[in-house]
Amino acid sequence: MAKTGASAKPTRADKKASRKAKRQSWRQNFRNMIEAFKVTRANDAKLVPLMVLWGVLAAAVVYVVFFLVSGSVLYPIVLAVMAGLLAAMFSFSRRAQRTMFVRAEGEPGAAGWMLQQQLKGDWRLTQGVAGTAQLDAVHRLVGRPGIVLVGEGSPYRVRGLLAQEKKRVARVSGDTPIYDIVVGTTEGDIRLAKLSRYLLKLPSNLSKEQVKALDKRLAALAGPGRSPLPQGPLPQGAKMRNVQRTVRRRS
């Protein structure tokens, strides 16, 4: 019986193409990491000293522990080097994330971008459910805590947008809890770096089935207030007037 295409073994050309794709992916990831390191180092003078410090401390601790356990002098060196590299990379990851939040904070679209990239768990995100031509926006989250409306932009304009959106959502949400927050740097706002932590601390009020049903009801609530805000933070050097002109055309 002839073999089907699904069960046929990959040809030499297929294997070569697969290896090439893996190499390209690895090179791209490596280039991205180098670029992230350069950006972080340029904005964080403590990056390299802290990477070295944590790397040396981790290597020293692991070496001493395995030396005392095994009595070997050479064997623990390998484990110590690996532990040092892991600790240095962990330190770099945390500092890079911190730098990313600092650079993005205050930029239009930063909160929506952060929610899309960083949020974990059973959350349903709808970006830009309301907004203005001045790049203020409200994003809607549906999850186990209920409904969370996240505003970003001018605190005065955003609070009005949040109040309007809260009334709209309340018409179909019943007794589901509705939380509204503003991401920013003024008093009473949630800082961008702490937004994910804030959401994780909210109590669980709905089951997964209720979350799914609620999200469907809210999806039918599309209105004219949908924000044409660009996806993600504005690029460095982008001219606000040009972006606002584009937003007004989309509105």
Q: What would you note in describing this structure?
A:
Helix content is about 55%, strand content about 10%. The chain has about 250 residues and is α+β, with helices and mostly antiparallel strands. It folds into two domains: about 15-105, no CATH class; about 110-250, no CATH class. It starts with 11 loop residues before the first helix and ends with a helix. Residues about 1-5 and about 235-250 have low confidence and may be disordered.
Beta percentage is: 5-15%
Identify low-pLDDT runs: 1-6, 237-251
N-to-C series of helices and strands: HHHHEEEHEHHH
Basic shape: extended
The main β sheet shows up as: 4 strands, mixed
Count of β-strands:
4
Biggest sheet, strands in spatial order? 1-2-3-4
Q: Helix count, per DSSP? A: 8
Q: Cα-atom Rg, whole angstroms?
A: 24 Å
Report, as a whole number of angstroms, the end-to-end distance.
Answer: 62 Å
Query: What class would the helix/strand composition place it in?
Result: alpha+beta
Mean pLDDT over all positions: 82
> How helix-rich are the residues, as a percent range?
55-70%
Overall number of structural domains? 2
Task: Write a brief caption for the model.
By secondary structure, the protein is an alpha+beta fold. 57% of the residues lie in helices and 11% in strands. The protein folds into 2 domains: 13-104, no CATH class; 110-250, no CATH class.
